[in-house]
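Title: Request for sanity check on TMEM205-like domain-containing protein prediction

Description:
We are preparing a figure and want to confirm that the structure record we downloaded matches what your pipeline produces today. Could someone re-run it with the sequence below and paste the raw structure tokens into this thread? We only need the token string, no images.
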Amino acid sequence: MHTFDHSGMEAGRRLAHQEPVYSVKLLQLLLLSTYWGMQIWVTFISSFVMDNHLNRHTYGFIQSRLVPFYLHLGSACAFFNLTIYAVHHPSDMMNDRESFQIFILFVAVSVAAVNAQWFGQMTSEIMADMHLVEQACGLGQDIGQSSNREAYAKLCQTDAKYRHLSGRLWLYRLLSSLCNLCCIVCNFCSLSYMAENLTAL
């Protein structure tokens, strides 16, 4: 008759909960900082710079290539961050702060994946369809997204297809932006957690 080795199981749990090696900590820091840096750059810097210097269609073309890559790379960083953390923090040995941290990482992975696979992709596709309609009407070469509003408003009034696309673009952009903001907040919480656990600068 076989006996269940509780001591071996406990030893395995302790081993999994041991301080991770330097390379693992470095990898997690690189993943988190890479994702955070991309978020700040794409959300708050590059978008505003391009909006003020590029015409509407050039800006849209670059965004349609840049944003999907950013979203997929971000979701991969979030996934590996969660995996590394979960491996070194067994669920039955986590305290409340560690449980909250793994929840934050899980939310970041889920939201980033939805944004990459659905909202971000739909935004790019709808924008491309709108650009075709605008090109046919001689629009899209004006600098900045906020310039020549009257012409685009008139196009919405006279073209039912464009009006429908514009409404869908507004919705998917809003959803994608909310997902992106959620991931920024999650990564800020993760950075705060790591800062709390630093023993020295």
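Thanks, this matches our download. DSSP finds six helices and no strands in the chain.
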